Amino acid sequence: MCPKFYKMKRTTVVFGGSGLVGSHLKADLKPTRAEVDLRNIDEIREFFNKNDFDTIVNCAGNVGGLGKNMSDNLEMFMSNMEMNMNLFKVIIENPGKINKTISFLSTCVFPADVDYPITEDKLHEGPPHFSNSGYAYAKRMGQVMADLMNDVGDYGKVISVIPTNLYGPHDNFSIEDGHVIPSLIGKAFFASQNNFSLNVWGDGSPLREFLYVEDVADIIEIILEKYESTKPLILSHGQEVPISDAVKEIAKCTGLTEVNYQVDKPNGQHRKPSDPSELLKLIGDYKFTSLSDGIKNSVNFYIENYPNVRK
User: Fold this and answer.
1) Each residue's pLDDT tens digit, 125-163
2) What is the pLDDT of residue 8?
3) What is the CATH number of the domain that holds 197?
4) In a domain, 3, yes or no
5) What is the per-residue burial (b if ≥16 Cβ within 10 Å, else e) of 209-246?
6) Active site residue 135
């Protein structure tokens, strides 16, 4: 749970409110994509004109796992550039309206050959991994624009947050396009229903800092209340685990006993450890959700809501 502290009155809008992070965030306004498509700047302008709010959390984006990024790099670049640019343009057209904007990036946008651990100041020290260059460059440009807006000083604080590997209820469980854990949950459920083994891309050795989405929702509340800097923040607990550990937890929760690691498939980046020191100073002794509990909650959500899950 979030620590208790004095809360100043604010009116918050969340874009991307039906997605993984947005669905867990508290907000006064959560327009659907049908109501405000960030690829359409006129729809954003109309929303700004019709509604009073002073805080934005932008979770909207075209996201996906390794397969989607590799096959749709150009589209990932264009769509994410368009969404970021349109929203920031409209904020600039309305100086003084917004006090604080939080914009989501991901640790996959960091350079492929960066010196580890990743810190916020290493974001632009080299090209990202080729497998997700479109998404990465688009998100990096959003962070550049945020810095420039902060330099001007008329558009409130624009803060880029950079979570590690997110997962949890309301994720996209697509076997083809989902991120690691939700995709594996979708595969595991299908395998358990059809007496198949669970097929996993690669050998399971890559290391990831899996971060449960409800923890992120708590942290965003803390940032909105307490964080007064405009420097980007890595969101993580800093603990790496091999993908095979997540596979074991998912197999246990879905009753699977056979796992087939497809070593002819790509592993993706082997590791990208982060240094979340700045975040940990802010959130103090916050207790993160364990991988075991987070996966159990995610699998239960999938089973209880199937077939009406995103997939």
Assistant:
1) 999 988 888 999 999 999 999 999 999 999 999 999 999
2) 59
3) 3.40.50.720
4) no
5) bbbbbebbbbbbbbbbeebeebebbbbbbbbbeebbbb
6) yes
The answer to whether 212 and 288 have CB atoms below 8 angstroms apart is yes
Low-confidence ranges of the chain (pLDDT < 70): 1-8, 64-67, 69
311 occurs within a structural domain: no
Please tell me the predicted confidence (pLDDT) of residue 272.
Answer: 84
Which residue segment(s) compose the domain that 56 sits in?
12-305
**Residue from 6, 135, 286, 302 carrying the catalytic annotation:** 135
Q: Which amino acid is at 99?
A: N
Classify 100 as helix, strand or coil: strand
Provide the whole-model pTM. Answer: 0.90
Q: How far apart are CA 214 and CA 169, in angstroms?
A: 9
What's the confidence (pLDDT) of residue 191?
94
β-bridge partners, 305: none
